[in-house]
Specification:
The complex is a heterodimer of chains A (146) and B (500).
Chain A: E1 4-5, H1 6-9, H2 14-37, E2 48-54, E3 62-70, E4 81-88, E5 96-99, E6 101-104, E7 107-113, E8 118-127, E9 133-143
Antiparallel strand pairs in A: 2-3, 3-7, 4-5, 4-8, 6-7, 8-9
Chain B: H1 10-23, H2 37-42, H3 46-67, H4 76-95, H5 99-102, H6 105-113, H7 131-146, H8 153-173, H9 178-182, H10 185-193, E1 199-203, H11 206-210, H12 216-219, E2 221-222, E3 229-232, H13 255-259, E4 265-269, H14 292-310, H15 315-327, H16 332-363, H17 369-377, H18 381-398, H19 403-413, H20 431-460, H21 465-488
Antiparallel strand pairs in B: 1-4, 2-3
Helix pairs in contact in B: 3-4, 3-6, 3-8, 4-8, 4-18, 4-19, 6-8, 7-10, 7-14, 7-16, 10-14, 14-16, 14-18, 15-16, 16-17, 16-21, 18-20, 18-21, 20-21
Classes of the chains: A alpha+beta (146), B mainly alpha (500).
């Protein structure tokens, strides 16, 4: 015996709706896949950013983040404000923040105390003297326990 | 294995009545009689009302997962999935019941689809068991570790999309709630976890059901008894209320509540884990002791909790490095596969087999060792749930407020910063508060497991219950110590497993 539902039996355009829904899904899925792969990490106005962490290997202790900024003519970029942010790549963890200081023309350093072993991501929030803002994101893999 | 029957039998009803009498001396609390919540849940569209917000959040998670911030802690898809959803789910099960299935957004889409698409097939008889969802459950745990799902909004969004697609395909082809009952790994997690819930959808007065001639709770309420037009569907998971026992396979959809013409179905309080202490014939399921697949689910539920937590602490990388060197693996999948096989298959097989043999020898239990192992496997569920609670509760509480800056950032990114600048320093409760909670959850789980094992031992060996109990009590204590050791380890979360 087959049971029928009242609402369902009253529809006269079932195939159209389902086909439209299916077509939308079929079109949307590859679009998500392609677009989702290409996230812009932040526009850089021709500025070269070199970043390093010491000492190595990175441990759950105070590390020094060194940043070098240079313009397209390879001249140091001075007077920038840089905020360094450390995030674990697992959500729900406390982020770290530190302000970088310019120790030489175009060279900046910031202390960052990694609080937990594991994979981290270091974000640089850079504001140039002219007010332009640059975002940079670098992974720091496998921070080891101290 | 026998096919579960939805039809009740008088012995099953008597067994249910006697079990209820044993555990519920006082009249149970009925959530449906509670002010505001009761009338809301009784409303025919209450489930839809609860599903709509979760569906809207799911859509946001998918869109943000694909197009939002690439950094996991700043993306709603990863924050909501791996911090808030998992924690809220286990806490809701602990405090009330299977509320996620009640508000399941996948079912909203599926119900919408079924207005136009009418499934033509019945789920194959050979697959009417839990082996597929058990395998999917293990697969999800494996992929979670292998691909570091927590660190990828993009993959997290794909998991959600995949779930919606699977629901639409399976329930578009097969009748009733085939996906919920025979496929959904989240659902099976909820079903086995809800064995320790304090609430159960159950009949208020069993005697009323004895006189019921229409059985609307399972057949659905019809326009007229002689017609085939159903106004309110009955249970799609083949749970016939008078013979239903426990929360297994119950999605809290409340279809039976709405269908019952006698208003005789409620959401009643009961002894948490009490359903594991006896082995009655259960509607739509049969006896637990004969369901090897559900026993396997209970085992995976318990040992999977250990494995999932083990994947987040420092020693796992030492073990994986050793496995890679020893077996000359070049990829991470091989080492992780061996680790999973050891923790989820070999370890439980050895421990449960040994405990069953000792129970048979010492306790004088007249069953095969496999039958004993299956029977007592369910006793591990409360401890497993305690570990899930401790693990997911840790992330939930320590990251409780992270949804605030993520939401602020979402609105700001849309060019509508009405919630202000994101306050990324908002995180959650301090570890000094959360860690005692973790121990409390584990102790609660241990207590539940010991109680269940003791009651089963009493039933199995009237003369020597202590001897029958000791192997299982020892096993529970050993697993508890493993859990404690795990939560005391320094957390070490690496999406790049090869780094170790």
């Amino acid at each position: 015996m087959t049971l029928k539902f009242k609402r369902a039996s009253s529809s006269s355009r079932p195939w159209r709706a389902s086909h439209i829904l299916g077509a939308l899904l079929a079109l949307a899925t590859p679009a998500f896949a392609v677009l989702g792969c290409h996230q812009p990490a932040g526009a850089s106005p021709g500025i070269t950013i070199e970043e390093s962490i010491a000492p190595q290997p990175v441990r759950t202790a105070e590390e020094t983040i060194s940043i070098r900024l240079a313009d397209p003519a390879h001249q140091p970029v001075t007077g920038a404000r840089i905020q360094v942010e450390g995030d674990m790549d697992h959500p729900g963890m406390a982020p770290l923040f530190a302000d970088a200081h310019e120790v030489a023309p175009g060279r900046y350093t910031a202390p960052l105390h990694f609080t937990m072993p594991g994979d981290w991501v270091v974000l640089l929030h850079i504001t140039l003297a002219g007010g332009q803002r640059i975002e940079r994101q670098d992974p720091v893999r496998g921070v080891q326990p101290n | 294995m026998t096919t579960p029957s939805a039809a009740p039998s008088p012995p099953a009803q008597r067994e249910r009545l006697s079990a209820d009498d044993e555990f519920d001396a006082a009249p149970p609390f009925d959530l449906l009689a509670f002010p505001v919540i009761g009338p809301l849940l009784r409303w025919r569209h209450s489930r839809t009302l609860l599903q709509i917000p979760l569906f809207a959040i799911s859509v946001v998670m998918i869109v943000e997962g694909f197009f939002g911030p690439t950094l996991s802690p700043k993306n709603p898809a990863t924050v909501l999935t791996w911090v808030h959803f998992r924690g809220a789910l286990v806490l809701a099960i602990l405090l009330a019941g299977n509320l996620f299935c009640l508000a399941c957004p996948f079912m909203l889409v599926r119900n919408g689809m079924r207005r136009w698409v009418h499934p033509r097939f019945t789920w194959p008889r050979a697959l009417r068991n839990k082996w597929i969802p058990v395998a999917l459950f293990v697969l999800i745990l494996f992929c979670y570790e292998l691909f570091g799902l927590w660190s990828s909004p993009w993959l997290t969004a794909w998991v959600i999309v995949g779930y919606f697609a699977a629901v639409l395909i399976i329930d578009g082809l097969f009748t009733h709630a085939a996906f919920c009952k025979y496929v959904c790994p989240i659902g099976q997690f909820n079903f086995i976890a809800a064995a320790v819930s304090p609430l159960e959808v159950s009949v208020r007065e069993p005697e009323v059901c004895l006189d019921c001639g229409t059985k609307d709770c399972i057949r659905g309420r019809r326009q007229h008894p002689s017609t085939l037009v159903v106004l309110q569907r009955g249970c799609e998971l083949a749970l016939f209320q008078p013979a239903k026992f426990g929360n297994m396979d119950c999605t809290f959809c409340l279809d039976c509540v709405h269908a019952c013409p006698h208003d005789n179905v409620g959401i009643l309080s009961r002894l948490p884990a009490g359903e594991l202490m006896s082995d009655p014939q259960r509607s739509g399921i049969g006896r637990f002791s004969r369901r090897y697949d559900i026993a396997a689910l209970a085992v995976v539920f318990c040992f999977g909790a250990l494995m999932n937590a083990f994947g987040m602490v420092s020693p796992v990388y030492t073990v994986e490095s050793w496995l890679k060197r020893t077996f000359h693996f070049h990829s991470q999948a091989g080492a992780l596969g061996i680790l999973f096989a050891a923790v989820i298959v070999i370890e439980p097989a050895v421990l449960l087999g040994l405990a069953a043999l000792l129970t048979r020898a010492w306790g004088g239990v007249k069953r095969s060792w496999l039958a004993i192992a299956v029977r007592y496997a369910y006793a591990l569920s409360p401890l497993g749930f305690g570990m899930w609670l401790a693990h997911y509760g840790y992330h939930f509480f320590t990251g409780l407020y992270t949804i605030v800056p993520v939401t602020q950032n979402l609105f700001a990114a849309m060019g509508w910063p009405i919630l202000g600048e994101p306050r990324w320093t908002l995180v959650g409760l301090p570890k000094t508060v959360v860690e005692p909670l973790e121990f409390g959850f584990l102790l609660l789980g241990l207590f539940g497991s010991l109680l269940v094992a003791w009651r089963l031992a009493q039933d199995d060996s009237e003369n020597r219950p202590l001897r029958a109990f000791i192997p299982w009590g020892t096993l529970c204590a050993l697993l508890f110590l493993c859990c404690v050791w795990l939560i005391m380890q320094p957390m070490d979360m690496r999406a790049t497993l090869g780094a170790g």
